[in-house]
Amino acid sequence: MASLSGKRIVLGVTGGIAAYKSAELTRLLVKAGAMVDVVLTEAGARFVGATTFQALSGRPVWTSLWDERMPNAMAHIDLTRGADLLLVVPATANFLVKLVHGMADDLLSTLCLARPRAGVDGALRDCPLFVAPAMNRQMWESPATQRNVTQLRDDGLHILGPGSGDQACGEMGDGRMLEAAEIFAALEASLCPKLLARKRVLLTAGPTFEALDPVRGLTNSSSGKMGFALARACAEAGAEVTLVAGPVTQTTPAGVTRIDVTSALQMRDAVLANLGGQNVFIAVAAVADYRPAAPADHKIKKSGQPLSIELVPNPDILAEVASRSDAPFCVGFAAESRNLAEYAEGKRKAKNLALVVGNLVQDGLGGDINAVTLFDAAGAHPLPAAEKLEVARGIVAHIASMLATR
User: Which of 2.60.40.1180, 3.40.630.30, 3.40.390.30, 3.40.50.1950 is the CATH number of 8-191?
Assistant: First the structure.
């Protein structure tokens, strides 16, 4: 659904220390099957040389407005003809000024000005322009820079970041360029059909942890990878996403609002507090079925004798949400060790769910690959085994098709 394979990308690199991240981005794009033409400004070449980009892209690097390698010596026009994306990574404060005012004093700025736009000069396709700002925090916070960024957004450019953190100057704050992997993910997201545009999605992910005492507890081996992949896939599809996460180490997907919890009761409270106005609720979390009736105030000391712990049921968050008169479109997950179809379909009917995503724990729990079957009123729909993000995109497409026919 969101493959960069076969795409032709023009990557502009300007003069900032973050140019080293552009080399990693080139590697990621080529690994994904994209064809990358790198355009290096004179200042950019002071940080990373053309030889590096040529080795990573496997293609000639372009540096001069007067380059005669194009048959008509018009690289500033021809390089973006037929290109799917034009990126400037990093985009310095100076280059943002050039874009705002339409300056064209080198190859890269001229390419940006002359890029094809839908319906302009008979262009067959729009070549969207993405820029990843990178600069000192004071430069980023400058009123002039903020005016320029606002104008570029109004002009239809896609601004990626910046992030916040340590900077080469030794300061800390906004202006740090996004990491190459974050930019890569944003490009993938831009290619996804906006199947969930104007929809609000609430998800749960990861395990819960039910304390026995201050240092021990009951939990499970869920990594949260599937839930976080689904949150990313929903955001890619244009949804406004809120993710309630148990104790996991996963990175929050771009554009997703994350709420961290520990126990099942905390997860229930967070879900109910954020349920209003949601169109879809996806319960991916592996919520503990039971919790200790009376957690110890202090560490339980080893005695060598059998230990009995009274457990009480945790609330069934999904069933509670699905039973409401104002329930959103509810999706459940059934991770089983056997009899998948029987148990998953039984769960769907018992909880009155629109959709249940079923999988055998040996096929995906804790790993990077998953194989699932979707169970709805129309029957069972298996998805091929794939990386969890690709599986998540397939689930999102199925949800969108069901929402469209409701």
Answer: 3.40.50.1950
Range 268-276, long-range pairs (CB < 8 A, 24+ positions): 268/315, 268/317, 268/320, 270/244, 271/202, 271/204, 271/244, 271/317, 271/321, 272/320, 272/321, 274/202, 274/242, 274/244, 275/202, 275/321, 275/324, 275/328
* CB 285, CB 222: distance < 8 Å: yes
**Extents of the domains making up the chain:** 8-191, 200-404
Q: Which of 169, 192, 234, 330 is catalytic?
A: 169
Tell me how far apart the alpha carbons of residues 237 and 200 are, in angstroms, rounded to a whole number: 11
Active site (annotated) includes residue 169: yes
pLDDT digit string (tens) for the chain, length 406 residues: 457 888 999 999 999 999 999 999 999 999 999 999 999 999 999 999 999 999 999 999 999 887 767 666 555 567 777 888 999 999 999 999 999 999 999 999 998 988 876 554 444 457 889 999 999 889 999 999 999 999 999 988 999 989 888 878 788 888 889 999 999 988 988 888 899 999 999 999 999 999 999 999 999 888 999 999 999 999 999 999 999 999 999 999 988 999 999 999 999 999 999 999 999 999 999 999 999 999 999 999 988 889 899 999 999 999 999 999 999 999 999 888 888 889 899 999 999 999 999 988 776 566 688 889 999 999 999 999 898 999 999 999 999 999 998 7
Q: Strands 311-313 and 290-292: what pairing?
A: antiparallel
CATH 3.40.50.10300 is held by the domain 200-404: yes
Cα 20–chain centre separation: 22
